[in-house]
């Protein structure tokens, strides 16, 4: 049963990590959006097409609209998830890989030996 608990822990930590990463990326995206909107507004101010106050409102409106769109897409995703269960595939570390462990150990031993030989040669030079 300890193996199953490890798998559950890994799945949980993966979910928490993914949520934190998504939140960080969303924050970065909003910062980028605000920066790009501010540049556009600055250009329009320079051209005389917009006042400073209009530019500030323009940038705020764009960011608010992006946040609303993100919230709506999250709600739509949550509604779809409740309709059908999400499939989760758990891959166990216990499954044998393409190469057996003995082959991997032999390869590592060969690599260590070649590195030792190379080190000996470097010390002699």
Tell me what the structure shows.
The chain contains 3 helices and no strands. The protein has 125 residues and is mostly helical. It has a domain of 80 residues. Helix 1 runs antiparallel to helix 2. The chain is flat, with a radius of gyration of 28 Å.
Radius of gyration: 28 Å
**If you average the pLDDT, what whole number results?**
77
How can the largest sheet be summarized? none
Share in β-strands: under 5%
Give the topology string: H per helix, E per strand.
Answer: HHH
Helix content: over 70%
The total of helices stands at 3
Q: What class would the helix/strand composition place it in?
A: mainly alpha
Using the alpha-carbon principal axes, give the shape.
Answer: flat
Low-pLDDT parts are none
Number of strands: 0
Alpha-carbon distance between the two ends: 56 Å
Q: Would you kindly provide a brief summary of this structure?
A:
This protein has three helices and no strands. It is mainly alpha-helical. The protein is flat, with a radius of gyration of 28 Å.
Short descriptors:
82% helix; 125 residues; mainly alpha; 3 helices; 0% strand
Question: How are the SSEs placed, and which strands pair?
Answer:
Layout: H1 2-47, H2 52-83, H3 101-124
Helix pairs in contact: 1-2
